[in-house]
Structures are given as C-alpha cells and as structure tokens.
Design a protein that fits this description.
The protein is α/β, with parallel strands linked by helices. The protein has two domains: 122 residues, Aspartate Aminotransferase, domain 1 (Alpha-Beta Complex); 226 residues, Type I PLP-dependent aspartate aminotransferase-like (Major domain) (Aspartate Aminotransferase, domain 2, 3-Layer(aba) Sandwich), CATH 3.40.640.10. It has 15 helices and 13 strands. The strands form three sheets. Strands 2-8-7-6-5-3-4 form a seven-stranded mixed beta sheet, with helices on both faces. Strands 9-10-13-12 form a four-stranded antiparallel beta sheet. It is globular and about 55 Å long. Bound molecules: pyridoxal-5'-phosphate. Pyridoxal-5'-phosphate binds next to helix 5.
Length: 371
C-alpha cells in the first residue's frame, strides 16, 4: 500500500512547487529519435567549460578518496585577492542557489519575510518556502524591471531578506546605480540585501548601460550580500559552485548552517583554475552580447517583443500563449524555456546559442512566431 505524503509532511512542504528545469538534450533526442538538438533553456555558456578548469580536473581526480577542504581556503583566498577583500568575507556554496537557501535558514526567524519582486528568479521563492518562511513579491515596472519604489513600499517590520538579481533572470533587466543607492538608503535596519550577480560578467560587456555594482555597494554597506556563480560565464554549471561576498558575521552563520563538505573538491579545483581564465570569460561575454544583438534585431512576428537583456538570454513576449510554441520548437529540436511558472504565460526565455546554432534557433523561432 503506497503512503500519502500528507501523512508525514508539514503543510508548507506539501504546498511546495517543484522546480522545472530546462529539458535535457539527451531526453529530447531520445523521445523524438533525433540528433543535433539545441538547448537554449538554462542560460548555460554555449562555448563550454573553461579550458583551464578542464585541464586542472585530472590532477584533482587522484585525490577523490579524500574529503574536500571544508574551509575551501585556496579558492577563498584567490577570490579575495581578485575582489580585494579578505578570505573571511567569502563563503562557498554548492552553486549560488545553495547559498540562497542557507541565507534564509541562517537569517530568517519564523515570522520573517523574504522580499523580492515579481518576474525574478524562482529560487528566491523556493528558498523561502522550503524553510516555511513568508515570501513577498513586489510589483515590477511595466517594463518588467525591478521597481525600487514598489520594493521599498513592500518593506514591513518582518522584512529580513531583500533579494534582487542584476541582471535579473528571466527579464535581463538591471538595477541602475542610483536605484540601488535608494534601496540601500531605505533598507530597514533589521534587513539584509542580497544582490544576485549570477550574470554580472555579461553585464560588464555593456559599459554604456547604467548598472549598479554589487561589490561597490557591499563596500559601503555591510548589510549587503553579493552572490556570484561559476555556473554561467565560467561554464561550470555541472560542477555546482558559487560564492557569497559578505560581512564576516554573515559568513560565520553561513558556515554554521551549510551541510558538511557541501562543496566538492572537483568543484573547487575547477573554479580555482577557471578564475584565471580571463580569455574564456572575455570570449563568453563578447559572444553573448553579439548573440543578444542578433536576437533583438532578427526575432520578429506579429505582437512579438524581445526585451533588451544584459545577461546571456532574452525574454520574448510572444503575444499569445507560449506553451504551444514551446512544444512546437521542441519538435524542431530547439529547447527553449516556457515562462508560465514565472507568471508569464505568453513568454519564452531563450539563452544565447553557439554562433553555428544561432541561425537555426532564430529561424525556428521566427517560423513559429509568424504562424
Ligand atoms: C539569477 C540567478 N541566480 C542564481 C542562479 C543559480 O546559479 P547556480 O548554478 O550557481 O546555483 C541562476 C541560474 O540560473 C540565476 O539565473
């Protein structure tokens, strides 16, 4: 007799949404009996992993019988040297998602709230809900960007974590310098501001667009926490490693709530080598900007709108329900991301593709959007 989960799970767990990741290439190819599918659904680096990281991994393999260095000292020191801070300002995570979950666990009491805005990264909501904490999403601007005034208006005596992404996933929008300054000036005394900079290296490729620098904000305000990841431009999403830059008091509590040996030795070895791979990072950023400019210039159809983005993806308003379009694109071997779970049922998110794949992605989208 199977048992019902309601018999043993608390109500906040029973209500949890299941995170729907992008469809894996192998799965689609198996289902359709095709080869050569293109995945532009998970904002990965289509140029592949950092070659320096790949070269460093074989040496780490011979030490797999050992537990990882739990303190992650070499990588934290290297990151600190790069950023211009102390190793004590840095915490490593099993991806930056892991650090978000840890932050809720470490800082939110039972009545505390996690505040973000609508159309932000789904993990912000999941991290709050997994811990049984109240999640609040302020409205965005009509352009789907972070509305600083609406965020400030949503502050309550229970606000503990305010989480913003810049560039934001899935909109690609950024927070301007003055906007971030205003947010920090209004931050309630008991609140911490998490600035998720998963795509910051891509934004740096657009110097003419005013966008805030999370690390500069952290240097001015110790209640700021910056999250970064090796999953995007460094091309190491499969290794699962990210980091937080924060006040030592925050780093200390993260170290208490994280699971034992939560970052693998391979992940740390790969990240350490990737950090020096400036050529791979520069190439990835240049490539993403070129691809986004092509998406903006070439994707079209009746009622269709492509949002400008400083990340490695664009959000497309299809002007009609996007689920059937997603299904038809799958049958053409192009995996994009439907956005209904983000509250955007007419939208698709499309990551940058390799140069060789871009024409096929754009042609498939335009065919379907014209229909
Ligand atoms: C805004 C944002 N933050 C964080 C992450 C998660 O990164 P990680 O792989 O480091 O957990 C993503 C990944 O899609 C993201 O879009």
């Amino acid at each position: 007799m199977p048992i019902a989960s309601s018999a043993f799970v608390p109500s906040h767990v029973a209500r949890l949404d299941l995170y729907q990741p992008g469809k894996p290439i192998d799965e689609l190819e198996r289902e359709l009996g095709i080869t050569g599918a293109i995945k532009v659904a998970s904002n990965e680096n289509p140029l592949g992993p950092s070659p320096r990281a790949l070269a460093a991994l074989p040496a780490a393999l011979g030490q797999l019988h050992r537990y990882p260095d739990a303190a992650g000292v070499p990588l934290r020191r290297a990151l600190a040297a790069r950023i211009g801070c102390e190793a004590g300002h840095i915490a490593l995570g099993n991806g930056s998602n892991d650090l978000l979950y840890q932050l809720v666990l470490a800082t939110c009491d039972v009545t505390d709230e996690v505040l973000t805005h609508e159309c932000s990264f789904l993990s912000y909501r999941l991290a709050a809900q997994v811990a049984g904490r109240r999640f609040v999403a302020a409205p965005t601007t009509p352009e789907l960007a972070c509305d600083i005034d609406a965020l400030i208006a949503a502050f309550t005596p229970h606000t503990r974590l305010v989480v913003v992404g810049t560039p934001n996933n899935p909109t690609g929008t950024v927070i301007a310098r003055a906007g971030l300054d205003r947010l920090i000036a209004a931050l309630p005394e008991r609140a911490l501001l998490v600035i998720d900079e998963a795509y910051t290296e891509y934004a740096a490729q657009w110097p003419e667009v005013d966008h805030a620098d999370g690390l500069a904000a952290w240097r001015r305000e110790p209640r700021v926490i910056v999250l970064r990841t090796f999953s995007k431009i460094y091309g190491l999403a499969g290794l699962r490693i990210g980091f937080a830059v924060a006040d030592p008091a925050v780093i200390d509590v993260l170290g208490r709530v994280c699971r034992t040996f939560h970052v693998s030795s391979l992940a740390m070895a790969g990240a350490l080598a990737a950090l020096d791979d400036t050529e791979h990072v520069a190439q990835g950023a240049r490539h993403a900007r070129r691809a986004i400019e092509r998406y903006l210039a070439e994707i079209r159809g009746p009622g269709v709108r492509v949002y400008p983005s400083l990340g490695n993806f664009v959000l497309i308003d299809c002007g009609r329900p996007s689920a059937p379009l997603y299904e038809r694109l799958l049958r053409r071997g192009v995996i994009v991301r439907p956005m209904a779970a983000w509250g955007l049922p007419a939208h698709l998110r499309v990551s940058v593709a390799r140069d060789a794949d871009l024409p096929r992605v754009i042609a498939a989208l335009n065919d379907e959007l014209a229909a």
